[in-house]
Write a structure and sequence with these properties.
CATH superfamily of the largest domain in chain B: Metal-dependent hydrolases
CATH topology of the largest domain in chain A: Rossmann fold
Number of helices of chain B: 12
CATH topology of the largest domain in chain B: TIM Barrel
Largest sheet of chain A: 5 strands, parallel
Strand content of chain A: 5-15%
Number of domains of chain B: 2
Structural class of chain B: alpha/beta
Strand content of chain B: 15-25%
CATH superfamily of the largest domain in chain A: Aspartate/ornithine carbamoyltransferase
Largest sheet of chain B: 5 strands, parallel
Shape of chain A: globular
Strand order of the largest sheet of chain B: 9-10-13-14-15
Number of strands of chain B: 18
Radius of gyration of chain A: 19 Å
Radius of gyration of chain B: 20 Å
Strand order of the largest sheet of chain A: 7-6-5-8-9
CATH architecture of the largest domain in chain B: Alpha-Beta Barrel
Shape of chain B: globular
Largest interface: A-B, 25 and 20 residues
Number of strands of chain A: 9
Oligomer: heterodimer
Order of helices and strands of chain B: EEEEEEHEHEHEHEHEHEHEHEHEHHHEEE
CATH class of the largest domain in chain B: Alpha Beta
CATH architecture of the largest domain in chain A: 3-Layer(aba) Sandwich
Chain lengths: 308, 425
């Protein structure tokens, strides 16, 4: 199995074998991060730019560390330029950066599909760090890596994704990836935040959190944006938390081997209670650790093919 | 001297002639139709092997002038129209300034006459500035040349104001054209709400945003015994509501655009902003229903909703790009390919949908048929000529077409307006 993709735009475009190759490659890179000297020369002389049009701390740092541990040179650009503001377009900005001979661009942007504009208009590799509500592939990959570590497999696992499915790129990437690897995915959240036709992506829909907790091997709780209440999708955060927030009492009714995941940052008391977020079933910090390894694998594979 | 079209197989809405005839055009009118008319000193067009139709009429187009001459002008839009076989077009009022006063109407008509390619009829706004606040001076606008009124681009959301507009339009005997879309339901949606929008994470515009206004307008027309014309129907459910309304004798007419019976929302999956249009491209079932509704008469006419935009305006990503696609130059080819050659309607029915009924709906008494005494607006097509849509081929300033690269069967050969050849392939 060899890697053939110049970009990583989403898990929709990847085969099961592609995903397994990333997860396999990440395993050896995880070992690198645990060494005393956390660096390998794999991408020496390469330049990786993170170009973030949306605020992010952990994803950007994770990518930056991943690139550094592969010996690539890194540069971080945070931009407030919104799609609608006049003047320089997204493509113009990216072309100017590329003109300084960049090998890969890690991009986050609020528009779904914006990474396609860049992949078509630029010569360097594009790694999607989140485009609108569409995909956040490395988050789903690190979730899958964590699941594989915990359970030794993904095939046949029952995974619940809880929360605002409508606006979640994490949910979409996980649905693509997990279903390709043979997991059974159930999405659970308020009906107003459940996108039309979601069943046709190969998932089940359930509005009963307790049932999902009882039936799952792992649940991924999604971050609930405060704006959703202003947009009237929800009566109140309190009501959301009552129906879809995971607390210890609800967890006690589920199986003890259930693990709780979250892409971060968590709204404590909304989607997860503090005792659950910090509890023994939570693997949130392990996800963060694995994120670096998975992103090392992605950068290594994407930049590796380009030099061939 | 006039223009003599020899060997013409005439296709009118009521029938296609079996034997070729000659058509003589003189002083802008069709002066004689007979076999073997003497050539005298006339300009001759040999139409052997072609079909000769009454000039196509598009009652829904955007010419962008005044205001956005970088997108289109009356001149470039007219050129696109005649290339597409249209001899009369009606332009929507969402210009800058809006067509809500006689001066803008007069400007457009004067400019169209100067260009001298096709007839251009401005559509007046229903409300001043299209602001949903006060009615325009419709009588004055009618006197200046408006045959119809619309706040196209959006609905008249204030239902009371819409009722008053309908009553007023009834008194003046002008057509009211409604763009059916409840903005509160659309809520920023950029494509059809459905499994494709769910998959690719774009904000969905639900079908009910269209149908609730369709239902409201039908009820208002029923209550007032007034007529209304519903623009660019895109949904199966809208067709069902229309069918019900027509069965009740309610005076509602409706139109559909080629993109709504040839493309589905799957076309948006590649984020090509040329596929971003309002109302959005819908599902496979909707496409099938629109075709059916055209065939059974539920949809009365076919329009382009030609909406040119610059490359710069369209290349800002799907969410930010303006709605609309060009259509004047691809309409005939798409209708021929997807409806006529596909056996859904015949040529006469096509003439009905693209010329005769539009003329009747807006009250163009001497257009929409090839008949002695009628205006000499004629479109000659080669029904079997195959061609490929290319970006370079468009004469419109807008190149925002999702049909680039598509093979079409059926091409405009000559467009004749007021007895003058204004386009030749």
């Amino acid at each position: 199995m060899t890697w053939k993709h110049k970009h990583l735009l989403g898990l929709q475009d990847l085969s099961r074998q592609d995903i397994e190759l990333i997860l396999e490659t990440a395993k050896s890179f995880k070992e690198v991060s645990s060494r005393d000297i956390k660096k390998v020369p794999a991408l020496r002389g390469k330049t990786v730019v993170t170009l973030f049009f949306e605020a992010s701390t952990r994803t950007r740092i994770s990518f930056e560390l991943a690139a550094k541990r592969l010996s690539a040179d890194t540069l971080n650009i945070a931009s407030n330029v919104s799609s609608t503001s006049k003047g320089e377009t997204l493509l113009d900005t990216a072309r100017n950066i590329e003109a300084m001979n960049v090998d890969a661009m890690v991009v986050r942007h609020s528009l779904s599909g914006s990474v396609f504009i860049l992949a078509e208009g630029l010569k360097c590799s594009i790694v999607n760090a989140g485009d609108g509500c569409r995909e956040h592939p490395t988050q789903a990959l690190l979730d899958m890596f964590t699941l594989q570590e915990k359970f030794g497999r993904i095939e046949g696992l029952k995974i619940g994704i809880i929360g605002d499915i409508l606006h979640s790129r994490v949910a979409r990437s996980n649905i693509w990836g997990l279903t390709k690897l043979g997991a059974r995915v159930t999405v659970c959240g308020p009906s107003t935040l459940m996108p039309r036709g979601i069943e046709q992506m190969g998932v089940e829909v359930c509005y009963d959190l307790k049932k999902v907790l009882k039936d799952s091997d792992a649940v991924i709780a999604l971050r609930l944006q405060k704006e959703r209440q202003q947009d009237k999708f929800l009566p109140s955060m309190r009501e959301y938390s009552r129906l879809f927030g995971i607390n210890q009492a609800k967890l006690n009714e589920a199986s003890s081997h259930l693990i709780v995941m979250h892409p971060g940052p968590t709204n404590r008391g909304v989607e997860l209670s503090a005792d659950v977020a910090d509890g023994k079933q939570s693997v949130i910090l392990e996800q963060v650790t694995n994120g670096v390894a998975v992103r090392m694998a992605v950068l290594y594979l994407v930049l590796g093919t380009k030099t061939e | 001297m006039g223009l003599l079209i020899k060997n013409a197989i005439i296709v009118n809405a009521d029938k296609q002639e079996s034997k070729p005839q000659d058509i003589l055009c003189h002083n802008g009118k069709i002066s004689n139709i007979a076999s073997n008319l003497p050539p005298e000193d006339h300009t001759i067009i040999d139409a052997a092997g072609k079909k000769v139709l009454p000039g196509l009429i598009d009652i829904h187009t955007h010419l962008r002038q005044p205001g956005r001459e970088d997108k289109e002008t009356i001149e470039t839009g007219s050129r696109a129209a005649v290339k597409g076989g249209f001899t009369s077009i009606m332009c929507m009022p969402n210009t800058n300034p809006v067509i809500d006063n006689a001066m803008v109407v007069e400007f457009i008509i004067r400019e169209a006459v100067r260009v001298g390619l096709c007839n251009v009829y401005p559509i007046g706004a229903i409300t001043k500035g299209q602001q949903d606040g006060e009615l325009t001076d419709m009588a004055e606008l009618k006197a200046a040349g408006c045959l119809a009124f619309s706040d196209d681009g959006k609905s008249v959301i204030n239902s009371r104001l819409f009722r008053l507009a309908m009553e007023y339009a009834k008194m003046l005997d002008v057509l009211l054209i409604e763009h059916c879309q409840d903005p509160l339901l659309t809520a920023g949606g950029v494509m059809n709400e459905g499994v494709v929008s769910t998959r690719i994470g774009l904000k969905g515009d639900p079908g009910i945003a269209e149908t609730v206004i369709v239902a409201r307008d039908i009820e208002t027309a029923h209550y007032l015994n007034a007529r209304v014309h519903l623009a660019h129907m895109s949904l199966k459910r809208s067709c069902e509501l229309l069918r019900f309304a027509k069965s009740q004798g309610i005076k509602v007419t409706a139109e559909a655009c080629p993109h709504h019976f040839t493309l589905t929302d799957e076309a948006c999956a590649g984020f090509d902003t040329a596929t971003k249009v309002s109302p959005p491209l819908r599902s496979k079932e909707d496409v099938a229903a629109i075709k059916q509704a055209i065939a059974d008469g539920t949809i009365d006419c076919i329009v382009t909703d030609h909406a040119p935009h610059t490359k710069e305006d369209k290349e800002v990503g799907f969410d930010g790009a303006p709605f609309g696609m060009i259509g004047l130059e691809t309409s005939l080819g798409l209708v021929m390919t997807e409806l006529v050659h596909a056996g859904i309607i015949d040529l006469s029915k096509m003439v009905d949908k693209m010329s005769s009924t539009p003329a009747r709906i807006v009250g163009l008494a001497n257009k929409g048929a090839i008949r002695t005494g009628f205006d000499a607006d004629i479109t000659i097509i080669d029904p079997d000529r195959e061609w490929v849509v290319t970006k370079e081929g468009f004469v419109s300033k807008g190149k925002n077409s999702p049909f680039i690269g598509r093979n079409l069967k059926g091409r405009v050969e000559y467009t004749i307006c007021s007895g003058k050849v204004v386009y030749q392939a």
